[in-house]
Amino acid sequence: SRMHERVTGVTPSGQPYAASDPALLNWVQATATFGFLEAYAAYVAPLTDTERDSCYRDAKAGAALYGATGSPASLEEQRAFFAEMLPRLEPSEIVFEFLSIMKKAPAFPQPAQLAQHSLVRAAVDIVPRDVRKILGLAPRYGLRPFEGRVVRRMGRRPERIKLRSSPPIQACLRLGLPEDYLYRR
C-alpha cells in the first residue's frame, strides 16, 4: 500500500528496512495471525491444529491485499517461517518502549483500564519462549498466576454474548435449531 511505501528506516543494529518489503509484510502477517490465534487459544477456548490451519489459510486472501503474498497458509508453514526468522531476531529497547506505551495508552473505557497491564502481560505470555529469550522478555513481563484467571474470564465473556446477526446464531436459524443452541454447554 502507499502508506507502507513511506515507512523506511534503519534498525538499532544498522539493518535498513522498508515497510513495503514483501518479506517484512509476510512476517507482520504471520506474527499478527499467530498472536490472534494463540491469544484466543490461551484465553478463550482451545484450538486444534486443524482449526489453526484453517485460520492461516483463511488469512491469506486479506494478507495478499496488503502485499503479504508469502505469508504462512498452515500451522506447519508458520512454524517453519518462525524457525527461519528466529536467527534474524535481536533484542531492542524498542520492544520495552512499546510495552510501556501499551500499558499506559487508554485502549479501553475507564473501568476496563484496570486490566490493561494484565492484558499486556497476557500478550507477552503467548510469545514463544525462544523469542522471549532473544528479546530479553524475562518472566516478570508475563502473567502472574492470578492474572491468567482474570484474563481468561475477560476473554470468554464476549463469546457468550448472543447477537442475532452473528454467524453462530444465523447458522442455527438456517438449520432450524434454537438460536442459543451453540451457546449451550
Overview of this structure, please?
This protein has helices at 2-5, 22-43, 49-65, 75-85, 93-104, 116-125, 129-135, 145-156, 167-174, and strands at 8-10, 16-18. With 185 residues, it is mainly alpha-helical. The chain folds into two domains: 2-88, no CATH class; 93-143, no CATH class. A two-stranded antiparallel sheet has the order 1-2. Strand 1 (8-10) and strand 2 (16-18) form a beta hairpin. Helix 2 packs antiparallel against helix 3 (49-65). The longest helix has 22 residues, at 22-43.
Number of domains: 2
Based on Cα principal axes, name the global outline. globular
Share of β-strand residues: under 5%
- Which oligomeric state applies? single chain
The radius of gyration computed from the alpha-carbon positions, rounded to a whole number of angstroms, is 19 Å
Supply the helix-strand structural class. mainly alpha
Order of helices and strands: HEEHHHHHHHH
> Helix fraction?
55-70%
Strand order of the largest sheet: 1-2
Strand elements, count: 2
End-to-end distance: 44 Å
Give me a quick take on this structure.
The protein is mainly alpha-helical. The chain contains nine helices and two strands; from the N terminus they run αββαααααααα. It folds into two domains: 2-88, no CATH class; 93-143, no CATH class.
